[in-house]
Design a protein that fits this description.
The protein is 62% helix and 2% strand. With 202 residues, it is mainly α. It has one domain. Strand 1 and strand 2 form a beta hairpin. Helix 1 runs antiparallel to helix 4, helix 2 runs antiparallel to helix 3 and helix 3 runs antiparallel to helix 4. Keywords: Membrane, Transmembrane, Transmembrane helix.
Amino acid sequence: MMCQGKCSTCSCSKCMGIALLPLAVCAIISNLLLYFPNGEVLEARRITDLVWFFHGILGAGILVFLPAFMMVGAGGAGRCSNKCGMVLSLVFAVLGAAGGLYCVTISSLGLISGPLCDIGDEVYVYPFRNDTLANNYLFNQTNWSICKKPENIILWNIVLFSLLLAIGTAEVVLCLIEVVKGLIGFLCSSCLRERKTDIGGM
């Protein structure tokens, strides 16, 4: 079925590429917003450390742009018409999946460990970092009052890290679908060429 529908396969890839582009843009914006807790400009040492892993900018952003642009151009000659194009698309899709997975990992850690905040008298610490999963601050909002500044820092981090987690998950799924399709297309292309060679030899 895959061998007989190269045009529909490329159209599907193009649709996934179009879906990945806004996801990557949203990931970059979400990551940038984490540098400005509650819309405030803080010193770098007062920003949650996991933000500096650039999981939204690099992982779910730049690394996902590569397969996205490749997929968007899938309808033209190149990607679906030769092995080189298919291999390149496959490599970029793997990079995109890795970038999305990186974003999911860091976002999960960010949600579990909580933000850096002022607990009073300009003392910035990670008040929830040593919590057990059962007693995590995510399930016990009564502990949120321990963070005095920046205002609403806990909710700010939860919303943005959750958004990045969702974006990264969606990107991983889309890129892995493209990886599977690429592998099938590559094997199918090899199979067709071998058949043509056999028929020609006869």
